[in-house]
Amino acid sequence: MSSAGDAHRRRRRAQTPAEQTFADLMNGFSLDSGRKRTRPPSSPMPEREPAPVAPQQEAPHFEAVVPEVPDASIVRAYAWTGGRTRSNINLEIETLVSANDQSRQSAGILQAEHQHVVELCRSPRSVAEVAALMRLPLGVAKVLVGDMAERGLVDVHQTASAGGDTPDLGLMERVLSGLRRL
Amino acid sequence: MDYVGSRFPELGPPGPPGRELTSAKIVVAGGFGVGKCTFIRSIVDSDLLTMTALPPERAGLVTELVRIQFGRVWLDPGLALHLFVAPQWQDPRAGWSDVVRGAVGAVVLFDVMRPADSVDAMRYFEDHHIPYVLALNNVHASVRSDVKAIIRGMGISPDVPVVNCDPRVRLSVREALITLTEHAKLDRWRRRPGPDETTPLAPVC
């Protein structure tokens, strides 16, 4: 009888995720870990032990509430790219990009994010650096940089490994001598 | 010449317009807390950057972003070397192919107390024929040969170099990277498609 009641309670808890999330959050506040937490025996406690806040953020229960902010920004970022996740230009994450004369001349009339990329790339930056410094997902940064390259706003310096193959021997030799000089 | 990111101050900042620019990358893999970020921080001048990527196969779902840390150092005025921390192993395809595609090779940091943590990475590099070195995380010299013997006993190809490395020491990190690049170069020679070109070493296989 009691197990049926438990199952019912569990079902109810599963159907109200917001309530559970809030309870978990409150359980996660370990204000003084030295004192032992006392819980009334009659209250319906969750099966899980109360844990510190940080691990709980990774628990799936939180997904409904917490990731909304990053998710929204991802949506906005993909809206920039028109929903595309691929660029016509083959860009690796280490591919270097630099601003050119055309982008310097058209400084005032660019879209804000293009302007941002141009400013970043005054000294050569890799696609990974552009993504990291603009806080964009890698796929979005690739499309953005690819579009700008197609419009001639930035120069793309193809890597020796472009095409998915291993780097050629000349590049490896250069890496080696560079490392030896470091 | 107040540019601080270059080790060639007399040549000015790297990559003025017109100069040929290129880049290369090396992957740093290993278990959690083995010192991957410390390793990279020791060799690059600036702090590490964090790039995010969406797992492509789950792009439609609400999911957490994969964070990939990396650093960059200019090896000569036209060559930028990127060092990427391999993404988490729980989700091997998330951002992983972007990181390893076209890499010179990989350094697998190996914690002797937790050898299993590095096995996934080693297996991946073996399977995909990506040259790698095993960098033992600061093993005391007295037991180094024993540890190396044990690692060889794990069935790792005898071609794979095993080096000792303290990720906090710049020279030690540099040695590991040089060993890797030499190994990768040799590996590349051996995989050359045709025997037409002159090789410094006779092809082994």
TrEMBL record, chain A:
* UniProt source species: Lentzea xinjiangensis
Region entry Disordered: which residue ranges? Answer: 1-57
Protein name from the UniProt record: DUF742 domain-containing protein
PANTHER family, alphabetized: DUF742 DOMAIN-CONTAINING PROTEIN (PTHR36221:SF1)
Its domain of life? Bacteria
Q: Which Pfam families match?
A: DUF742 (PF05331)
From TrEMBL, chain B:
Q: Which residues cross the membrane?
A: none
Q: Which Gene3D superfamilies match?
A: P-loop containing nucleotide triphosphate hydrolases
* Record InterPro entries: Gliding_Motility_GTPase, P-loop_NTPase
Q: What is this protein called?
A: Signal recognition particle receptor subunit beta, a GTPase
Native organism: Lentzea xinjiangensis
